[in-house]
Design a protein that fits this description.
single chain, about 375 residues, alpha/beta, Rossmann fold, 2 domains, seven-stranded parallel β-sheet, six-stranded parallel β-sheet, 16 helices, 13 strands, about 45% helix, globular
Length: about 375
């Protein structure tokens, strides 16, 4: 019998999690795998480039949801996904990560009686001001199969009363994508193209509401990056959300040749820059993991993280969005770059294969 699996993705981090699962399911002749793109990230810079770089087949369905408030976006995904789910009658709906599309698709599938599998289950920041935390908890609550990336994620789920047989410690699919892309990323030569090859540059991404929505906080972070650029080049690929906030706040107010504002870039170029960076400053979840795997120092501008393993066993450190704190952390990170990358359990490039084994063969991973 054919197993019909729907993978629902909507934003850039989802695509990196989908790629290893898609490859693993493609080796299973009895699986019909259909990719549904909600359109939450809808422009080529944030979507199409990633499908190309990660060698993911084009989605069979695009719901075309686009931007909007959390309620508008979540509601639109549910409205448009429900008739498709009824039509296709999947055996399993796989949702990825913690964006609005993740929770919306999980709710629809659960109410229609389809099995729901959550990739990257069990992560908790315990910060209820983060929309992603609400999405994670709700998605895990309605999911039948929970694919955890780390031991702490398993512990979170067990602490919330989730039955052990629903939880599978499969490892980190983001690391699967990273490992697969490393040879191409190394050959991409992005540092040379951006004029920073052989120099201890800082790579920056910032887009969380807590960092970019308040003009005073955003201005202080821009001042911080300007100060850091006095010592070494700072490359800042600017998320569309952040660019809109910068423009509305009239920032930056003075040009600085060392601080370079860049357009969003394809996955392989970004990974090529991460590989050679002296330090990464970010508020992204995925970059905390990628830098920890690669042994690249990371400064995360957040009070907490749903990925504590990156601080306990990786290269990540947390700081508030204050100039002195960020500058001190960056200087310390540059001094303490590890000689060899950390080794983290089951971050080995096989998470996608384990997920396929659970879904198709009934294997358990404790």
């Amino acid at each position: 019998m054919t197993l019909t699996v729907l993978s629902v993705v909507g934003a850039r981090p989802n695509f990196m999690k989908l790629a290893p699962v898609s490859r693993a399911l493609a080796t299973r002749p009895a699986v019909r795998h259909i990719v549904v793109h909600t359109g939450q990230h809808y422009d080529a810079e944030l979507s199409d480039d990633f499908f190309r770089d990660l060698a993911i087949p084009a989605p069979e369905c695009n719901l075309g949801v686009g931007s909007g408030s959390h309620g508008q976006q979540t509601g639109a995904v549910m409205q448009r996904f429900e008739p498709l789910c009824v039509q296709l009658r999947p055996d399993v709906v796989i949702v990825y990560g913690d964006v609005n599309s993740t929770m919306a698709a999980a709710l629809v599938a659960a109410k229609l009686g389809a099995r729901v599998a959550h990739v990257e289950a069990g992560l908790r920041s315990r910060d209820w001001s983060m929309p992603e935390e609400i999405n994670r908890v709700v998605t895990d609550r309605v999911s039948d199969v929970l694919f955890a990336p780390s031991r702490d994620a398993v512990a979170n789920l067990r602490g919330e009363g989730v039955a052990a047989q629903r939880i599978h410690f499969v490892g980190n699919v983001m690391v699967d994508s990273l490992i697969a892309a490393l040879p191409t990323a190394r050959a991409a030569g992005a540092p040379a193209r951006y004029g920073v090859a052989g120099r201890p540059y800082t790579l920056v991404t910032l887009h969380r509401p807590s960092n970019v929505d308040d003009p005073a906080t955003l201005e202080e972070l821009v001042e911080t990056l300007t100060a850091l650029a006095a010592d070494a080049p700072v490359l800042f690929p600017v998320h569309p959300r952040t660019r809109a906030r910068l423009e509305s706040a009239g920032l930056p107010r003075a040009p600085n040749p060392g601080l370079r504002w860049l357009d969003p870039m394809p996955y392989l170029d970004m990974l090529s820059l991460v590989l050679s960076a002296g330090v990464v400053v970010t508020d992204s979840g995925g970059l905390q993991e990628e830098t920890s795997y690669l042994g690249v120092p990371c400064v995360t501008v957040r009070p907490g993280t749903e990925r504590p393993i990156t601080c306990l066993e990786g290269t990540n450190r947390l700081v508030p969005p204050r100039r002195g704190a960020v500058e001190r952390a960056v200087l310390e990170a540059r001094r303490t770059r590890p000689q060899t990358p950390p080794v983290i359990e089951r971050w080995d490039g096989e998470a996608g294969a384990r997920i396929a084994a659970v879904l198709c063969d009934g294997v358990r991973f404790d």
